[in-house]
Amino acid sequence: MAVTWTRAWWRWTGGPTTRPVERVVRVDGRSRADEPGGERQAFGRWVKRPRVDGGKRRGDGCDRRSLSPTWVLAVGCPQPAGRGGRGVGVGRDASRLAGLQRRLQGIAGGLAVYDEAPDNVSSSTYSSTPSLPGCRVAPGRRADAGLPLARVTSNRIDVEALAAMDGVGRFREVLPMLMDPVAFAEAFVSGDAAGGCRVPSRGMERHRATLRSCGVASDARSRPAFAMKAFTTPKKDGRTARLVLDARPLNDAMRRPPSMDLPRLRDFIAEVERHRFAMQCDGVSYFYQFPVDASISRYFGIGMKGCDMLLNVLCMGWSWAPCIAQRASNVLVRDLGLAWVDNFLVLGGTLDEAERNVAVFRKRAQAARVEVRAEGDDALWQVRSRFVCVGVEFDLAAETQRHRLDPAWAERWVDGSGMTAVLSGRATARQFAEVFGGAVWATDILAVPRCHFAALLSFAGRLGGRMVGAAAPVWDEVVDVPPSARRELGALRKIVRENPWVVGGVPEDTGSVLWTDASSRAWAALLEAEGRFVDGRQGVFAGPDADAHINLKEMLAFAEGVVRLCWAPGAQRCRIDNAAVVGAVAKGSSSSYAANRVLSRSLRVAGRRGIVLRPDWVPSGGQLADPYTRGTSLPRFPAQLPLPRSRATPFDLF
Question: CA angle, corner 28, sides to 27 and 32, nearest 5?
Fold first, then answer.
């Protein structure tokens, strides 16, 4: 048994304060009598030599027990906050080594032995024997115990044939990241392509045979450029898990990927509801179907005990992977339907059109060797009018197309343990993030403006800012959720529990245009119909509003216009010269708590009157309400429209 020295940084949480503590793990295959003094000196107080008599000594900070000096596994650490370190016992012979290594893995995240010392380990780690093997160890995330890896396909996509179908060229733009090592190296930030990072995984050794058998990964014959920790996450069936690589070291070393070309959720839903029939399927282990060139796979290493592995397929966890997968999917469904990463939706206005589109999609999938399967219990290639896709249930057979949340997803979110913890006021940051992510998803699908949950958005923004600014975000830290945020979350929970149908389609235009504007001291709102002003209001900001930001004043002017002037149901066009207000109204929320409160009032009134607001930006030179915010009195209605200013100011360009 060779000697392996490993070093890891740990965080001590037993004392009143949290501070880093360095532990050195030692595996020694020689007797204590043969141990050179230089090695003891190199590790100093961190390495605790076991006592031969097998006794325990108080006050030395280490619980020692020795049956024989033949096999020694020792863990030592400085004594933080007055507390002692802990040691791992020793085994009598080689038959005990496996059990001791499992105990060591739970502490240090695993061991790896190479034929040569890795470059990222300093010579002081090896003391006077630099030829001894070793590695740097960091605590890894534990795999989900008891869950086997989901069965994955051994099929590989013909990416060259898929690129030949790309009439737009968006997939060909990112294809070199899979096949060209030169292009891959050019995506690194200067000086970071050499890698050298190694972070071992915990509990992944039992999946080694599965990864080999399906061709997803192979044993590394040399040290990978990046050996990262892998973990598994449960799939929605609850019985199997998917492999994910924590590729943050690789992502940090590379430049950001281009746009995914993923459609916005609201645009996705609107496009589906323009049709009557659809065929849905998804890619089988879609990411694993994309082959990676052998010269690139060395960057996708999995740190494992004994021997690292290399991924031979697209890495789930790599920042470029979703972009590559989505652009490939867009090639398959071009002019036929929509794609959401590995979900394919082929659409048709009539049954015949849908079946023709399905036939074209099948030919493309077969030519590119893309393996797909039906969703749930549906038969493959079956055209339907009611289905569930990306968490949305569609009913295209109704008189008016409609949608709502997937009932199974809604039930899990409403009655989940995370929701219970958040509503109690004491939840971990991870639980709150999961619940809040579901809230964002639910409001988008159910068309509930998020400005109605201003306190919830404000708390999520503060918590997110704290996590982003932290050197090491602590997601398991308990946070206090304010009562106002809990009340708003409870109201949203009731809406999701009811899960009402949302009727699609575009409402009929009201035929009028609302013009709103604000200056530093006054606001104005006018309603245009049939080429002239038919009504209007103006006022002066007073009290706290007089000192508000100009964006908030513009939002106040818009709210006054909606509440006082808009009464006809339908799509109401609005003309605003403030881009922040236009964006907030369009998406139903703002980054400002005060603006969300004002916008919530406007949208509640509009909703009760059956009005759908359609904001548009206009330059300040074309804002017809502008003169009435600068001292001009409102005309007697109906009135002719004033001529817009003939020349825009330089600020109109921004």
Answer: 140
Q: How far is CA 544 from the centre of its chain?
A: 39
338: amino acid identity, one letter: L
Q: Measuring CA to CA, which residue among 489, 417, 425 is closest to residue 457?
A: 489
The secondary structure of 122-152 as a DSSP string is -HHHHTT-TTS-EEE----PBP-TTPPBPP-
- Give me Rg for the CA atoms of the chain: 31
Global pTM?
0.71
CA of 57: how far to CAs of 64, 86, 213, 524, in Å?
8, 13, 50, 83
Which of 544, 612, 556 minimizes the C-alpha distance to 580?
Answer: 556
Mean of the pLDDT values across residues 153-174? 92
The rounded distance, in Å, linking the Cα atoms of 515 and 23 is 67
pLDDT at site 590: 92
- Three-state secondary structure of 508-560: CEEEEEEEEEECCCEEEEEEEECCEEEEEEEEECCHHHHHCCHHHHHHHHHHH
Q: Are the C-beta atoms of residues 433 and 475 closer than 8 Å to each other?
A: yes
Check residue 376 and give its pLDDT: 66
Residue 357 burial class via C-beta count within 10 angstroms: exposed 0-12, middle 13-18, buried 19 and up: buried
Kindly state the DSSP code that residue 188 receives in the 8-state scheme: B
Tell which residue, 610, 601, 609, 613, has the closest CA to residue 454.
Answer: 601
Strands (E), 63-146: 72-76, 134-136
Question: What would the two tokens of residue 424 be?
Answer: 């109690």
pLDDT band at 379 (very low <50, low <70, confident <90, very high): confident
Residues 479, 432: contact at Cβ < 8 Å?
Answer: yes
What rounded mean pLDDT belongs to the chain?
77
Higher pLDDT, 79 or 347: 347
CA–CA distances in Å: residue 76 to residues 9, 23, 132, 262: 12, 6, 20, 50
Alpha carbon distance 73, 3 (integer Å): 10
Phi, psi (degrees; rounded to nearest 5) at 11: -115, 120
Alpha-carbon distance of 510 to 529, in angstroms, equals: 9
Q: Residue 623: which of 577, 585, 588, 584 has the closest Cα?
A: 577
Tens of pLDDT, residue by residue over 82-140, are 333 333 333 333 344 444 444 444 333 333 322 223 333 332 322 222 222 232 323 33
Strands 532-540 and 509-518: unpaired
Encode burial over 8-22: b for 16+ CB neighbours within 10 A, e otherwise: beeebeeeeeeeebe
What local confidence, expressed as pLDDT, does residue 582 receive? Answer: 95
User: Cβ(427)–Cβ(478) under 8 Å?
Assistant: yes
In the block, tokens 């509003």 appear at: 545
Mean pLDDT of 364-381: 86
Position 190 confidence tier, pLDDT thresholds 50, 70, 90: low
Residue 97 to residues 28, 35, 107, 433, 605, Cα–Cα distance (Å): 11, 19, 15, 41, 72
